[in-house]
Write a structure and sequence with these properties.
heterodimer; A: mainly alpha
Chain lengths: 190, 99
Protein backbone atom coordinates (compact mmCIF):
# COMPACT_ATOMS: atom_id res chain seq x y z
CA UNK A 1 0.00 0.00 0.00
CA UNK A 2 1.39 3.42 -0.93
CA UNK A 3 1.51 6.36 1.46
CA UNK A 4 -1.23 8.02 -0.55
CA UNK A 5 -3.45 4.96 -0.29
CA UNK A 6 -2.83 4.72 3.45
CA UNK A 7 -3.65 8.41 3.89
CA UNK A 8 -6.81 8.06 1.81
CA UNK A 9 -7.99 4.96 3.66
CA UNK A 10 -7.33 6.50 7.06
CA UNK A 11 -9.22 9.65 6.06
CA UNK A 12 -12.15 7.62 4.82
CA UNK A 13 -12.24 5.45 7.93
CA UNK A 14 -11.62 8.08 10.57
CA UNK A 15 -12.91 11.35 9.09
CA UNK A 16 -15.62 10.66 6.53
CA UNK A 17 -17.50 8.38 8.90
CA UNK A 18 -18.42 11.47 10.93
CA UNK A 19 -20.02 13.28 8.00
CA UNK A 20 -23.59 13.07 9.39
CA UNK A 21 -22.44 14.42 12.78
CA UNK A 22 -20.42 17.19 11.18
CA UNK A 23 -23.41 18.11 9.04
CA UNK A 24 -25.70 18.30 12.08
CA UNK A 25 -23.18 20.43 13.95
CA UNK A 26 -22.74 22.68 10.91
CA UNK A 27 -26.50 23.05 10.63
CA UNK A 28 -26.74 24.01 14.29
CA UNK A 29 -24.14 26.72 13.67
CA UNK A 30 -25.44 28.08 10.38
CA UNK A 31 -29.18 27.30 10.80
CA UNK A 32 -29.46 27.08 7.04
CA UNK A 33 -28.92 23.99 4.89
CA UNK A 34 -26.93 25.42 1.98
CA UNK A 35 -24.61 27.31 4.34
CA UNK A 36 -24.22 24.12 6.37
CA UNK A 37 -23.33 22.17 3.23
CA UNK A 38 -20.69 24.77 2.36
CA UNK A 39 -19.31 24.60 5.88
CA UNK A 40 -19.15 20.79 5.81
CA UNK A 41 -17.35 20.90 2.48
CA UNK A 42 -14.80 23.44 3.70
CA UNK A 43 -14.30 21.51 6.92
CA UNK A 44 -13.47 18.30 5.06
CA UNK A 45 -11.22 20.10 2.59
CA UNK A 46 -9.17 21.54 5.44
CA UNK A 47 -9.15 18.21 7.24
CA UNK A 48 -7.83 16.50 4.10
CA UNK A 49 -5.18 19.16 3.53
CA UNK A 50 -4.00 18.96 7.14
CA UNK A 51 -4.62 15.28 7.77
CA UNK A 52 -1.00 14.82 8.87
CA UNK A 53 -1.68 17.05 11.88
CA UNK A 54 -4.45 14.77 13.13
CA UNK A 55 -3.21 12.45 15.85
CA UNK A 56 -4.19 8.94 14.87
CA UNK A 57 -6.03 7.31 17.71
CA UNK A 58 -7.68 10.49 18.96
CA UNK A 59 -11.28 11.14 18.03
CA UNK A 60 -11.54 12.72 14.60
CA UNK A 61 -15.08 13.90 15.33
CA UNK A 62 -13.93 16.49 17.90
CA UNK A 63 -11.13 17.59 15.56
CA UNK A 64 -13.63 18.05 12.71
CA UNK A 65 -15.99 20.01 14.99
CA UNK A 66 -13.11 22.29 15.95
CA UNK A 67 -12.28 22.92 12.29
CA UNK A 68 -15.94 23.52 11.44
CA UNK A 69 -16.36 26.01 14.26
CA UNK A 70 -13.16 27.84 13.38
CA UNK A 71 -14.17 28.07 9.73
CA UNK A 72 -17.63 29.29 10.68
CA UNK A 73 -16.33 31.89 13.11
CA UNK A 74 -14.08 33.33 10.42
CA UNK A 75 -16.65 33.22 7.67
CA UNK A 76 -18.31 36.22 6.11
CA UNK A 77 -21.64 34.40 6.11
CA UNK A 78 -21.52 34.04 9.86
CA UNK A 79 -20.43 37.63 10.45
CA UNK A 80 -23.18 38.95 8.22
CA UNK A 81 -25.85 37.17 10.25
CA UNK A 82 -24.47 37.43 13.72
CA UNK A 83 -26.29 39.59 16.17
CA UNK A 84 -23.32 40.78 18.14
CA UNK A 85 -23.12 39.38 21.62
CA UNK A 86 -20.10 40.95 23.24
CA UNK A 87 -18.30 39.28 26.10
CA UNK A 88 -19.85 41.53 28.72
CA UNK A 89 -23.40 40.88 27.56
CA UNK A 90 -22.70 37.17 27.27
CA UNK A 91 -21.28 37.05 30.76
CA UNK A 92 -24.28 38.86 32.17
CA UNK A 93 -26.55 36.31 30.49
CA UNK A 94 -24.54 33.49 31.98
CA UNK A 95 -24.39 35.07 35.42
CA UNK A 96 -28.05 36.01 35.53
CA UNK A 97 -29.93 34.40 38.34
CA UNK A 98 -32.14 31.49 37.37
CA UNK A 99 -35.61 32.42 38.54
CA UNK A 100 -38.14 29.66 38.26
CA UNK A 101 -40.92 31.37 36.36
CA UNK A 102 -43.00 28.24 35.81
CA UNK A 103 -45.51 27.46 38.52
CA UNK A 104 -45.66 24.00 40.05
CA UNK A 105 -48.82 23.27 38.00
CA UNK A 106 -47.13 24.42 34.79
CA UNK A 107 -44.02 22.36 35.47
CA UNK A 108 -46.14 19.32 36.20
CA UNK A 109 -48.11 19.82 32.95
CA UNK A 110 -44.94 20.35 30.91
CA UNK A 111 -43.40 17.20 32.38
CA UNK A 112 -46.23 15.20 30.77
CA UNK A 113 -45.94 16.73 27.28
CA UNK A 114 -44.00 15.60 24.22
CA UNK A 115 -41.44 18.38 24.29
CA UNK A 116 -39.03 17.18 21.60
CA UNK A 117 -40.42 19.12 18.60
CA UNK A 118 -40.63 22.36 20.56
CA UNK A 119 -37.12 21.88 21.94
CA UNK A 120 -35.67 21.41 18.47
CA UNK A 121 -37.26 24.69 17.40
CA UNK A 122 -36.14 26.48 20.56
CA UNK A 123 -32.53 25.35 20.14
CA UNK A 124 -32.60 26.89 16.68
CA UNK A 125 -33.41 30.27 18.26
CA UNK A 126 -30.75 30.27 20.98
CA UNK A 127 -27.99 32.88 20.77
CA UNK A 128 -24.92 31.32 19.16
CA UNK A 129 -22.68 30.91 22.25
CA UNK A 130 -25.45 28.91 23.93
CA UNK A 131 -26.59 27.08 20.81
CA UNK A 132 -23.14 25.70 20.07
CA UNK A 133 -22.76 24.35 23.62
CA UNK A 134 -26.17 22.65 23.45
CA UNK A 135 -25.32 21.30 19.99
CA UNK A 136 -22.14 19.71 21.28
CA UNK A 137 -23.09 18.51 24.76
CA UNK A 138 -26.80 17.78 24.51
CA UNK A 139 -27.21 16.90 20.83
CA UNK A 140 -23.85 15.25 20.09
CA UNK A 141 -23.22 13.87 23.60
CA UNK A 142 -19.74 15.39 23.69
CA UNK A 143 -18.22 15.42 27.21
CA UNK A 144 -17.78 18.84 28.88
CA UNK A 145 -13.97 18.69 28.66
CA UNK A 146 -14.01 17.90 24.94
CA UNK A 147 -16.61 20.60 24.28
CA UNK A 148 -14.38 23.07 26.14
CA UNK A 149 -11.46 22.13 23.89
CA UNK A 150 -13.57 22.49 20.73
CA UNK A 151 -14.92 25.87 21.82
CA UNK A 152 -11.59 27.09 23.23
CA UNK A 153 -13.11 28.03 26.59
CA UNK A 154 -12.65 26.74 30.16
CA UNK A 155 -14.80 23.79 31.21
CA UNK A 156 -16.57 26.02 33.73
CA UNK A 157 -17.72 28.22 30.86
CA UNK A 158 -19.16 25.21 29.06
CA UNK A 159 -21.00 24.25 32.22
CA UNK A 160 -22.40 27.71 32.93
CA UNK A 161 -23.44 28.31 29.30
CA UNK A 162 -25.06 24.89 29.09
CA UNK A 163 -27.01 25.39 32.28
CA UNK A 164 -28.14 28.83 31.22
CA UNK A 165 -29.07 27.51 27.76
CA UNK A 166 -31.22 24.79 29.28
CA UNK A 167 -33.05 27.36 31.38
CA UNK A 168 -33.61 29.48 28.28
CA UNK A 169 -34.96 26.43 26.46
CA UNK A 170 -37.26 25.59 29.35
CA UNK A 171 -38.50 29.17 29.32
CA UNK A 172 -39.15 28.93 25.58
CA UNK A 173 -41.10 25.72 26.14
CA UNK A 174 -43.23 27.44 28.73
CA UNK A 175 -44.08 30.23 26.31
CA UNK A 176 -44.81 27.65 23.59
CA UNK A 177 -47.08 25.69 25.90
CA UNK A 178 -48.98 28.82 26.93
CA UNK A 179 -49.37 29.99 23.36
CA UNK A 180 -50.71 26.56 22.42
CA UNK A 181 -53.03 26.48 25.43
CA UNK A 182 -51.36 23.34 26.70
CA UNK A 183 -50.78 24.45 30.28
CA UNK A 184 -53.07 26.28 32.70
CA UNK A 185 -52.76 30.08 32.51
CA UNK A 186 -52.58 30.68 36.23
CA UNK A 187 -49.43 32.85 36.16
CA UNK A 188 -47.71 35.19 33.78
CA UNK A 189 -44.61 33.87 32.07
CA UNK A 190 -41.41 35.91 32.42
CA UNK B 1 -24.47 11.93 30.67
CA UNK B 2 -27.99 12.60 31.95
CA UNK B 3 -28.40 9.70 34.35
CA UNK B 4 -31.76 10.68 35.72
CA UNK B 5 -32.37 9.92 39.37
CA UNK B 6 -35.84 8.47 39.97
CA UNK B 7 -38.74 10.84 40.54
CA UNK B 8 -39.62 9.02 43.78
CA UNK B 9 -42.16 10.48 46.19
CA UNK B 10 -45.00 12.25 44.31
CA UNK B 11 -46.40 13.94 47.42
CA UNK B 12 -43.66 16.11 48.88
CA UNK B 13 -43.87 17.88 52.21
CA UNK B 14 -43.44 21.66 52.69
CA UNK B 15 -40.01 23.08 51.92
CA UNK B 16 -37.82 23.59 54.98
CA UNK B 17 -35.89 26.63 53.68
CA UNK B 18 -35.79 29.15 50.82
CA UNK B 19 -31.99 29.15 50.86
CA UNK B 20 -31.98 25.42 50.28
CA UNK B 21 -34.26 25.97 47.28
CA UNK B 22 -31.73 28.35 45.74
CA UNK B 23 -28.95 25.84 46.19
CA UNK B 24 -31.07 23.04 44.80
CA UNK B 25 -32.00 25.11 41.75
CA UNK B 26 -28.38 26.02 41.06
CA UNK B 27 -27.28 22.41 41.34
CA UNK B 28 -30.31 20.82 39.69
CA UNK B 29 -28.68 20.24 36.30
CA UNK B 30 -25.53 18.85 37.91
CA UNK B 31 -27.77 16.55 39.93
CA UNK B 32 -29.74 15.40 36.89
CA UNK B 33 -26.55 14.96 34.85
CA UNK B 34 -25.11 12.88 37.69
CA UNK B 35 -22.01 15.07 37.95
CA UNK B 36 -22.23 15.87 41.68
CA UNK B 37 -20.31 13.89 44.25
CA UNK B 38 -22.22 11.28 46.23
CA UNK B 39 -22.80 13.52 49.23
CA UNK B 40 -24.17 16.43 47.17
CA UNK B 41 -26.32 14.05 45.12
CA UNK B 42 -27.92 12.84 48.35
CA UNK B 43 -28.45 16.39 49.66
CA UNK B 44 -30.11 17.62 46.47
CA UNK B 45 -32.20 14.47 46.11
CA UNK B 46 -33.43 14.80 49.69
CA UNK B 47 -34.31 18.46 49.11
CA UNK B 48 -36.19 17.76 45.89
CA UNK B 49 -38.16 14.98 47.52
CA UNK B 50 -39.10 17.20 50.45
CA UNK B 51 -39.77 20.50 48.67
CA UNK B 52 -43.15 21.22 47.05
CA UNK B 53 -41.61 24.09 45.01
CA UNK B 54 -38.60 22.22 43.70
CA UNK B 55 -40.22 18.85 43.12
CA UNK B 56 -42.27 19.81 40.03
CA UNK B 57 -39.37 21.80 38.60
CA UNK B 58 -37.11 18.78 38.91
CA UNK B 59 -39.80 16.75 37.16
CA UNK B 60 -39.96 19.31 34.35
CA UNK B 61 -36.16 19.33 34.11
CA UNK B 62 -36.13 15.53 33.87
CA UNK B 63 -38.79 15.60 31.15
CA UNK B 64 -36.80 18.29 29.37
CA UNK B 65 -33.62 16.19 29.35
CA UNK B 66 -35.54 13.13 28.15
CA UNK B 67 -36.94 15.24 25.31
CA UNK B 68 -33.44 16.50 24.45
CA UNK B 69 -32.33 12.89 24.23
CA UNK B 70 -35.26 12.24 21.90
CA UNK B 71 -34.19 15.14 19.68
CA UNK B 72 -30.71 13.62 19.58
CA UNK B 73 -32.04 10.15 18.78
CA UNK B 74 -34.34 11.45 16.06
CA UNK B 75 -31.49 13.19 14.26
CA UNK B 76 -30.83 11.43 10.99
CA UNK B 77 -27.78 9.18 10.85
CA UNK B 78 -27.28 9.89 7.16
CA UNK B 79 -26.09 13.14 5.62
CA UNK B 80 -28.58 15.07 3.53
CA UNK B 81 -28.73 14.15 -0.11
CA UNK B 82 -26.05 15.95 -2.00
CA UNK B 83 -23.74 16.95 0.81
CA UNK B 84 -21.67 13.76 0.66
CA UNK B 85 -21.35 14.04 -3.11
CA UNK B 86 -20.43 17.70 -2.77
CA UNK B 87 -17.75 16.90 -0.20
CA UNK B 88 -16.34 14.03 -2.25
CA UNK B 89 -16.24 16.16 -5.40
CA UNK B 90 -14.33 18.89 -3.57
CA UNK B 91 -11.93 16.35 -2.06
CA UNK B 92 -11.29 14.70 -5.42
CA UNK B 93 -10.27 18.07 -6.83
CA UNK B 94 -7.55 18.02 -4.16
CA UNK B 95 -6.27 14.54 -4.86
CA UNK B 96 -8.54 12.36 -2.76
CA UNK B 97 -9.52 9.29 -4.76
CA UNK B 98 -11.65 7.32 -2.29
CA UNK B 99 -15.35 6.51 -2.32
Amino acid sequence: MTDHEARRDAFETEALRWLPDVERFALSLTREQSAADDLVQETYLRAWRHWETFRTGSEARAWLFTIARNVWHRSGARNARLVAVDDEVLQSLVDEDYPISASADESAALAQMDLAPAIAAAIHELPEPFREVVALVDLQDIPYAQAAAILGVPIGTVRSRLFRARRMLQQALLVYAHDAGLVPSTTETA
Amino acid sequence: MNHFPPADDPTPAPCPSDTDCGTAVRQLWDYLDGTLDTERMAVIQAHIKACPQCFPHADFARAFLVAVQQVRAQATSEPSSGVRQKVLAALKAEGYDGR
